[in-house]
Amino acid sequence: LATGPRQNSSVFYEIRTYDIKPSKMKEFVEMVNKYFHLRTAHSELVGFWSAELGAMNKVVHIWKYENFAQRTAVRHALTNDNDWQGKFISAALPLVEKQHNEVAYLVPWCQLGKPPKEGGVYEWVTFQMKPGGPALWGEAFRAAINAHINTGYTKLIGVFHTEYGLLNTVHVIWWNENPDQRAAGRHSAHEDARVVAAVRDSVRFLESQKNMLLIPLQCSPLK
């Protein structure tokens, strides 16, 4: 089964999700904001968020790599970085309950976007699609995404398709000024015949979906 899009670039993104001990979330975020410059000295951070709705005590961060050789070199360098290991890792690991990572590519028809201004919120939507990859559901999924873009109430940041992890998973990141704007836009979209038609076509290939409302951390390039 074809599970991956045809990639014209070796660039990929590592998505890391950490569940933090409930009583330690504040401490973890403070440590990230204080010491994460030690980590970003080694490779490019795309964004770092904490979950506000849809999950609790969870953080998500995305790293960009030019290829797998670069990631290997970065991971090796981090192991030997005494400041990173001593100031952050040794203190942060006891605060973490669970870690999960995925490797994903941007879908070929999407470029990584930026919000029009700082201070908004991000909606992270995860779609589990039927096996077969974009060759099966890609066109219908793209049409559904474009239908939402055309409503104008939300800003698309990125669409990522997994290469390692649970396959046929698509993560879509949207930006809105605030949760109320997002709620009003969703209500209008549900009454838009174009959106309804596009979603109805795409949902034929859908197994499940879930979402989170995310707040960017101080250290996050995407704010």
From TrEMBL:
InterPro entries: Dimeric_a/b-barrel, NIPSNAP, NipSnap_domain. GO terms for cellular component: mitochondrion. Residues 13-111, 122-221 form the NIPSNAP domain. GO terms for biological process: mitophagy. Gene3D superfamilies: 3.30.70.100. Belongs to the NipSnap family. PANTHER family: NIPSNAP-RELATED, PROTEIN NIPSNAP HOMOLOG 3B. This is NPS3A protein. It comes from Uria aalge. The gene is Nipsnap3a.
